[in-house]
Design a protein that fits this description.
By secondary structure, the chain is an alpha/beta fold. It has 21 helices and 15 strands. The protein has helices spanning about 30-50, 65-85, 105-115, 130-145, 165-190, 200-205, 210-225, 230-240, 245-255, 275-280, 300-315, 335-345, 380, 390-400, 445-455, 470-480, 490-510, 540-555, 580, 585-595, 630-645; strands at about 160-165, 265, 290, 295, 295-300, 315-325, 355-360, 405-410, 420-425, 515-520, 530-535, 570-575, 605-615, 620, 625. Strands 1-9-8-7-6-2-3 form a seven-stranded mixed sheet, sandwiched between helices. The chain has a four-stranded antiparallel sheet with strand order 10-11-13-12, sandwiched between helices. It has a two-stranded antiparallel ribbon with strand order 4-5. Helix 12 (about 335-345) links the parallel strand 6 (about 315-325) and strand 7. Helix 3 packs antiparallel against helix 16 (about 470-480), helix 4 (about 130-145) crosses helix 16 and helix 5 (about 165-190) runs parallel beside helix 10 (about 275-280). Bound molecules: pyridoxal-5'-phosphate (PLP). Pyridoxal-5'-phosphate binds near residues 166, 171 and 273.
Length: about 650
Amino acid sequence: MSAAQPFPTEEPRDHALDACFLGPYGENDTLLEKLLVEFLRDHVYWRRNFHPEDPPAIATTAAHHPDYLAFESRMRRELHQLSAALKKSVPFHSPRYIGHMASDLLLPGLAAQMLTLPYNPNNVSEDAAPVTVDLEVQVGLQLARMLGYPHDPAQPACAFGHLTSGGTLANYQALRLALALKAFPVALRAAGVPELPLPTDAWAAFNLSTVDGIALLEAWQRWLAAQPPAQRAHWLQRVEQERIEQRGLAGFFAAHPQLRVPLVLAPVTAHYSWSKGLKLLGLGRDQLELLPTDGMRLDPAALRDTLERCARERQSVLMCVAVLGGTEYGTIDPLDAVLAARQASRRRGLDFAVHVDAAWGGYLATLFRHEDGTLRTRDDVAADYTQFPTPAVHAAFAALGDTDSVTVDPHKLGYLPYGSGAFICRDHRAMALLAERADYVFHAATPAGYLARYRSLGQFIPEGSKSGAAAAAVYVTHKVLPLDHAHFGRLPRATVRAAEGFHARAQRFALELADCVHALVPFAPDSNLVCLALNPHGNTSVATANAFVRALHDELRCDPQQPLQTREFFGSVTSLRPEMLGPAQTARILGALGLDPASFVPGDDRLLILRHTLMNPYLIDRENGISYIDRYFDFLGRRVRALRGTAGSRP
Ligand SMILES: *Cc1c(COP(=O)(O)O)cnc(C)c1O
């Protein structure tokens, strides 16, 4: 059994977290119920007070009519069926759930969303959402501050962010924006706009830095505003005709044969939303070049080589994606090295956007922010952990503010309901290029101008109609738990500490079961995802190891045929592929597991491993002195021995 003291007793319990969630046992049910009833009544009074002189349109006797009663009973029957069916849902709330990137929901967000739903605001524009559109724009500024972007709308170079259905769409928005900004100077040249400081050729125009591209856009807007109305319309139309958004990829690149369709560079660990994004934008998956990693973190040397090759071949690059918290291993790419590689590439005339896919790890940035918004030193952050943050991880978070755009998923480590992803760009002025209606002459120099502009949110986002309730949920949560280490940061702090405990326990587990299996954490976790590779002792075949891990996972996954209670724990799996790992890492991991690299069967050339997402805030239950991490490893040990048929031979 687990040690009597699963965690240091001197660690004080964080009471601030007690009211954050409904809780694994529904402990805060009365709090949520009170809030729901209170604000439902509030909503009803609002309806009644709109024009109290209007009499009730539904008769007070209506509820006695047979048709009414029949409808009600049908509705009840269906709702009960739904409610019964939903009992098969995945128990995300439980500390026994350590599978995918999901957990309990923060009460402020859940309550704000439920409160807002009956008002049904549509954040496509202020006409349909006079309140929640503003909240969404504020959410963008809250996230910008967390990331280290300029967040004062009174400043011209303020960041801008908006919500999306999820990280997938936010990544797509990053591609759209980068392409618009990259191609616009080429259009200005092609249109022959006079008096502007235009680059000398199409290649140079296609390789302006983000800063220079935005400066040129601004110069063009100023020039246009100074033209007489007839001239203005003429030039606006001429430039529009040359834009990539107007001509399409085919027309644009046919008109500029000296330019090639640009590449998107991303590490092999990149989420599959990048493949979707390239398909959606029409760039094609051929243009997604996946770069090798070192221990699942983008390899800066490989990036530098690729950029040198691209500069030499005059192959343009749209964007380099760095992942902040990989979906499989939670690893963190060296953003600082990516930015340095861009700096070097710039000198060779090849420039591109740097986007951070922080769909998973974005909220970890709260750990690195003081309450006043400044960056915490590594030593300061490290005082709370045994390993975290490595110098590389700290450097990556410190560099966030110098990137061009970021994806963050409030519905992952923000503990908010689906679907809330977020896209944030460092300088909002480029967003003018995404506007469906070219509103060039408009200047957003004042905070009022900034807000007024983005109240027509539908002009800029990939979606149209969208949930204002989701925006309210994110906004209220960020107000209740500001995005710094002293507030929101307490949550990721608990999860990173749990991951460190999990990692240490996994290493002990490997020793305890050394007579029975080889067990290995293949990559030291950068954040709060920890994987575990397993191979039965004496086995050298990858196929047999995979069958073993699959059998273990069969007891760790959702099975709609089985009652939920038959499951002790929930985990997930992922796979290690040699082409993703590279030869050195493949040899290291297979060697440590006692597996023969030659046993990789073509078509099955992957090694299945267990994957654990440690985001539940109650993995260590201080109230009852229970560590669900210890319980999980006890369970896993029993299953491993049972599968090996060595249940009786425990030392
Ligand atoms: C989850 C994830 C995505 C996709 O986000 P969705 O919200 O599922 O659309 C993209 N990138 C990374 C790194 C992710 O973890």
